[in-house]
């Protein structure tokens, strides 16, 4: 089963931007007035290409066989058994063969999110006879304990470790990572560059 993890905030904001761009492109086409409209289209094209590459494309994907890291310009497919170490700070870094490292673009943990997680992991002291907070079920309590002091990035890092250990126990081969260019991002960036050239050339 495939699981995809990404920055929800960046993903939502990117789609809001695309809706904004769609409206403006329609308006520029309807009210086309030559070079100023072309320049505006070129600017929107460049910004949209950057938004796609940085906010929409990046994702961390779990498949049955491998960890797939989709970064802005490259895609890395790393078999689970090849994962040697996982560290989580601002981003998740996965180390594999010959001291190589895969830095995942998402999910990331901001300083604010980490501070919030630390506060969540600190037990609160309750005083008095009456408790205003509702009593949690066993499942809710277990979930709180599992996430105590952890950000989403920490949790995903733990899942990567567990899957890599499980793959080694099953005897999966530690094959080298496969890295390929992100042709979708490159195509979008080339199209944006073409718009810039057209806007610069046409008088």
UniProtKB/TrEMBL annotation:
Ranges annotated as spanning the membrane: 12-32, 38-56, 179-202
Protein keywords: Membrane, Transmembrane, Transmembrane helix
Region feature (Disordered): 113-135
Keyword Membrane: yes
Name under which the protein is recorded: PH domain-containing protein
Species this chain originates from: Nonomuraea monospora
Lineage of producing organism: Bacteria, Bacillati, Actinomycetota, Actinomycetes, Streptosporangiales
């Amino acid at each position: 089963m495939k699981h995809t993890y990404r920055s929800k905030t960046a993903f939502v904001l990117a789609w809001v931007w695309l809706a904004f761009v769609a409206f403006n492109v329609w308006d520029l086409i309807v009210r086309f007035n030559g070079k100023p409209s072309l320049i505006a289209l070129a600017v929107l094209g460049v910004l949209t290409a950057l938004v796609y590459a940085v906010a929409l494309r990046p994702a961390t994907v779990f498949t049955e066989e491998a960890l797939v890291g989709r970064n802005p310009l490259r895609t890395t497919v790393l078999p689970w058994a090849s994962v040697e170490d996982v560290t989580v700070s601002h981003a998740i870094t996965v180390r594999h063969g010959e001291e190589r490292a895969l830095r995942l673009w998402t999910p990331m943990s901001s300083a604010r999110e980490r501070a919030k997680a630390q506060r969540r992991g600190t037990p609160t002291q309750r005083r008095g006879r009456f408790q205003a907070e509702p009593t949690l079920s066993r499942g809710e309590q277990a979930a709180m304990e599992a996430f105590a002091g952890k950000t989403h990035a920490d949790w995903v890092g733990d899942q990567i470790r567990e899957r890599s250990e499980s793959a080694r126990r099953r005897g999966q081969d530690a094959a080298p990572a496969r890295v390929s260019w992100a042709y979708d991002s490159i195509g979008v960036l080339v199209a944006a560059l073409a718009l810039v050239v057209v806007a610069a050339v046409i008088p």
